[in-house]
Amino acid sequence: MLVVNKGERQLLAYSNGRLLRSYRVSLGREPVGSKLRRGDRRTPEGQYVIDSHNPASSFHRALHVSYPSVGDVARAKAGGYDPGGEIMVHGIHNGLGWLGKAHLLMDWTVGCIAVTDPEIEELYRIVPDGTRIEIRP
């Protein structure tokens, strides 16, 4: 299981209830509040699943988060807007991996959860499809 604590800019990786690893993360440019619609630059909050691995991402590897959920879609439909999608846990933009931990100086994604390239390599290896991810405020 993965847990993202947005307020602490932290991703925790658990196995059988035991903490394996903690990562510092950057979030969407508007980090407060849950994602509501396409283009709001927010990282969603709620219960999701890592549903695929993308080795050919424009970022150094990516794990796809199952946003939007049925509830997210219903809320967006009721509000008359597009909930957006393509939320990932990913590394640094290809070619910029040298930034390393400097990427943590600001929230820079459009709603994703970013770690360093070596960290996404590790997550890519240890997180299988179907892993639950809980994104908390």
Please characterize this protein's 3D structure:
- The chain has two helices and eight strands.
- Helix content is 15%, strand content 29%.
- It starts with a strand and ends with a strand.
- The model has no long low-confidence stretch (mean pLDDT 95).
- With 137 residues, the chain is of the alpha+beta class.
- Strands 3-2-1-8-4-5-6-7 form an eight-stranded mixed beta sheet.
- It has helices at residues 70-79, 117-126; strands spanning 2-5, 10-15, 18-24, 46-54, 62-65, 88-90, 113-114, 132-136.
- It has a single domain, classed as L,D-transpeptidase catalytic domain-like (Beta Barrel).
Strand content: 25-35%
Mean pLDDT across all residues, rounded? 95
CATH topology: L,D-transpeptidase catalytic domain-like
User: So what's the overall shape?
Assistant: globular
Could you name the CATH homologous superfamily? Answer: L,D-transpeptidase catalytic domain-like
Structural class: alpha+beta
| Share in helix | 10-25%
Instruction: Indicate the CATH class.
Output: Mainly Beta
The CA-CA distance between the termini, in Å, is 17 Å
Q: What is the topology, as strand order, of the major beta sheet?
A: 3-2-1-8-4-5-6-7
Number of extended strands? 8
Radius of gyration: 14 Å
Order of helices and strands: EEEEEHEEHE
CATH architecture: Beta Barrel
Low-confidence stretches: none
Total helix count? 2
Tally of domains = 1
